[in-house]
Automatic annotation (TrEMBL):
HTH tetR-type domain: residues covered: 5-65
Entry keyword set: DNA-binding, Transcription, Transcription regulation
DNA-binding annotation, residue ranges on this chain: 28-47
Identification of the protein by name: TetR/AcrR family transcriptional regulator
DNA-binding in keyword set: yes
Pfam family name, one: TetR_N
SUPFAM superfamilies cross-referenced by the UniProt entry: Homeodomain-like, Tetracyclin repressor-like, C-terminal domain
Length: 194
C-alpha cells in the first residue's frame, strides 16, 4: 500500500503545481498523469472521480498549509506577535512568487471551484475556517502574553485580516505587483498594534 499512497501523493503534488499555473478546469487528468509519470488509464485506481481528485487536492494543500502554520507557532521562544507576523510574512512570500502569481490554491481557485464543485467548495470552506481558527488562537495568545492588542474580538480580527490578505493577493496578481500586499502588511501591523 505505501507505493499506492506515494503515487497518489505524487499525482496531487503534480496537479497542485499545474493547477496553480492554469486553474482547475483547464487541467486535464491525462496532463497530470503524464507529468507525474503515471500510466494513462490508472487515474481511477487512485481517485473515484475528478471531483474526488479536486477535493483530495484541496485537502492535501490545506494539510501542508496547516503544517507550515503549526511550524511557525512551534517556536515557543517567540512571542505571539512574532508568530503572527512570521505567518503574514510567510503569506506575503508565498504570494509574491512568480511575479505575484502566488502559490495559494485558495486565491487561485476560490471563485472557480465555488461554481464548479460542491465537494471542493466545502473542503475549501472548512480549510479556510481552520486557518482563521489558528489565527484567532494566535491573537488570543498574543493578548494573553501582552504582545498583541486588538480593537475587535479575536475572531472578527482573524476573519478580517484573512479576508484582507486574500483580497490583496488577488489584486497583486492582477497588477503583477506586491503593492497591495505591502499595504496589507501595514494594515495588519496597525490592527494588531505591533
Amino acid at each position: 500500500m505505501p507505493a499506492k499512497r506515494e503515487t497518489r501523493q505524487s499525482l496531487l503534488d503534480t496537479a497542485r503545481r499545474i493547477v496553480l499555473a492554469k486553474g482547475y478546469a483547464a487541467v486535464g487528468i491525462n496532463e497530470v498523469l503524464a507529468e507525474a509519470g503515471v500510466p494513462k488509464g490508472s487515474f481511477y485506481h487512485y481517485f473515484d472521480s475528478k471531483d474526488a481528485f479536486g477535493e483530495a487536492l484541496m485537502k492535501s494543500y490545506f494539510d501542508d498549509y496547516f503544517a507550515a502554520m503549526d511550524g511557525i507557532v512551534a517556536h515557543t521562544e517567540k512571542s505571539s506577535a512574532e508568530h503572527l507576523m512570521r505567518y503574514w510574512q510567510y503569506f506575503y512570500d508565498t504570494q509574491v512568487k512568480d511575479d505575484c502569481q502566488g502559490g495559494c490554491l485558495v486565491v487561485k481557485l476560490g471563485a472557480e471551484i465555488a461554481d464548479l464543485s460542491e465537494a471542493m467548495r466545502v473542503t475549501t470552506k472548512a480549510g479556510t475556517a481552520a486557518i482563521v481558527d489558528r489565527l484567532e488562537r494566535m491573537i488570543v495568545d498574543g493578548i494573553a502574553d501582552g504582545s498583541v492588542s486588538v480593537d475587535d474580538s479575536p475572531r472578527a480580527t482573524a476573519e478580517a485580516l484573512y479576508d484582507l490578505w486574500l483580497g490583496a493577493s488577488m489584486i497583486a496578481k492582477i497588477h503583477s505587483s506586491p503593492g497591495q500586499l505591502d499595504r496589507a502588511m501595514a494594515v495588519t501591523r496597525r490592527v494588531l498594534h505591533v
